[in-house]
Design goal:
The protein has 3 helices and no strands. With 106 residues, the chain is mainly α. It has a domain at 28-97. Helix 1 (24-43) runs antiparallel to helix 2 (50-70), helix 1 packs parallel to helix 3 (74-97) and helix 2 runs antiparallel to helix 3 (74-97). The radius of gyration is 19 Å and the shape is rod-shaped. The chain starts with 23 loop residues before the first helix and ends in a 9-residue tail after the last helix. This is Integral membrane protein. Keywords: Membrane, Transmembrane, Transmembrane helix.
Length: 106
């Protein structure tokens, strides 16, 4: 007797995963790192926004580093490196313009 064919359902695949599995933690870390990297990089271009750029850069570096530690695929690692670079650049320029507490604590 012939077995009835069941339709194949594909598992939910994330945008950054190539192994056929979903990685919600890694996707969230990629998104947070890239957003914080863009924020830190853009605000670092303005001298008076050094608090935002330095703190956003610092948090972006930490989330990006943890994201690199737990990442599984290359598609996850590539935007993490881009976000880490932007976060680091924003952090260092924010530190040069006044630092994490510059002008707040005398």
């Amino acid at each position: 007797m012939a077995q009835p064919m069941r339709p194949r359902t594909r598992p939910a695949v994330s945008l950054f995963a190539t192994d056929g599995r979903s990685h919600p933690l890694q996707d969230a870390l990629v998104t947070v790192t890239v957003v914080l990297g863009i924020l830190a990089f853009v605000t670092a271009m303005f001298h008076h926004l050094h608090l935002i750029s330095s703190w956003a850069g610092l948090v972006g570096i930490m989330t990006g580093a943890y994201g690199q530690y737990v990442s599984v695929t290359t598609r996850e690692r590539f935007p993490l490196i881009v976000g880490l670079g932007a976060s680091a650049l924003g952090f260092f320029l924010g530190m040069a313009h006044g630092g994490l507490f510059g002008g707040v604590i005398n």
